[in-house]
Amino acid sequence: MAMIETQAGAVDATRTPTRSDKATRRRVASRLGLVVALALVVYYAIIFVLPFGVSIWLSLQNWDFIVDPKYVGLRNYQRMFSDSYFWQALRVTVTFSAVEIAAALLLGLVLAFLLSRLRGARQRTFMALFYLPVITPSIVAVLLWRWLYIRDGGAFNNLLTALGIPPQPFLLSSEQALYCIVVMVVWTFVGGVIVLFLAGINDIPEHLLEASMLDGAGLFRQFWHIILPLLRPIIVYQVVVSVIGTFQLFEQFMFLAGPGFSTRTLALYTYQLGFQSMDLGYGAAVSFFIFLALLVATTVQLRRQRATFEY
C-alpha cells in the first residue's frame, strides 16, 4: 500500500499542469502584484503626494509656526510678483542655469569626442578621473572649493601670484561670486555629461564615420555634421535634466555665498523665507512657483526640441 501511495504521488508530481493549475498560479501572482502595487502607491502618496498637497495648502495660508494658520487666498502669490527680492533671486537663478548648462554641455561634448578617439586603458583612466567629482559628496566638494577660493593664501590666488597676475577676490566680489559657483558646479557634474555623450558617440554606426572619412571629412566635419545631429536626443535629455537640477541646487549657494544677494537663488530664498524668516506661507508660494516654472520649461523643451531621426 505504501508503495502504491508513493507511486501515485510520483505520478501526481510529474503530471502535466492543467488549465485550472495555470489559472490558480495567475490568481496568486495577481494578488502578489496587487500587494506590491498598493505598497508603491501608499509609499508614493506619503512621500510625494501628501507633502505636495500640504505645500499648496500652506501657500494659501499665513503661518509663522506660532499662531494658527490663517487663510489668505492668493495674497502670497500677489506678494511674490511685487517682491523685488523674488525677481532678483529669479534673475540670479536663470543666469546661473543658462551659463552652467551651456558650459557643461560644450565642455562635455568636446571631452567626450576626444575620449572617443582613445581606446582601452587610457579611455577608462580618463573617464574615471572625470567621473570622480560626480561621486564625491557635494558638501566635501563645496568645502574644497571654498578653500581654493580664499583670497589670502588660497590655492588659486597663490597660482595667480606665481604667474604674475594680481590676486582676485573671487567669492568676495559680487561680480565674480556667481561665476565662481558656476565653475565649481561644472567641475562637479561634467563627468556625468561626458558619460552620456560618450555612450551616444560609441553607439553611432562605424560605417557612417568611415564613409565620411572616405569622402574627405575631417574630425571637425565629422563632429558637426554626423556626431552632433545624432546626439540631439541625448542633448535634449541633458538640457531638461540640467534645468531641473540647477534650479534645485542649494548647498553650493548656501556655503559659497557671495556678497549681498549676488548668489541668492530661488531655492536659497525659499529656505530663508521658510526657516529663517518663519514666513511659511510665502515660502511655500515661492516653492510652488519653482515647480510650475520647471514644469513649463520641461514641457516646452520636450515639445520644441523633440528629435526624430534614423540612421
Please provide a written account of the structure.
Helix content is 75%, strand content 1%. By secondary structure, it is an all-alpha fold. It folds into two domains: 49 residues; 225 residues, MetI-like fold (Orthogonal Bundle). It has a two-stranded antiparallel sheet with strand order 1-2. Helix 2 packs across helix 14 and helix 4 runs parallel beside helix 8. The radius of gyration is 28 Å and the shape is globular. 23% of the residues are buried. The N terminus is likely disordered.
Overview in brief:
The protein is mostly helical and 311 residues long.
Structural class: mainly alpha
Largest sheet: 2 strands, antiparallel
Strand arrangement, largest sheet?
A: 1-2
Which overall shape is indicated by the principal axes computed on the Cα atoms? globular
Helix fraction bin: over 70%
CATH hierarchy class name of the largest domain: Mainly Alpha
Architecture of the largest domain, according to CATH? Orthogonal Bundle
| H/E element order | HHEEHHHHHHHHHHHH
CATH level-4 homologous superfamily of the largest domain: MetI-like
Total DSSP E strands: 2
Instruction: Give the averaged pLDDT, no decimals.
Output: 87
Provide the gyration radius in Å. 28 Å
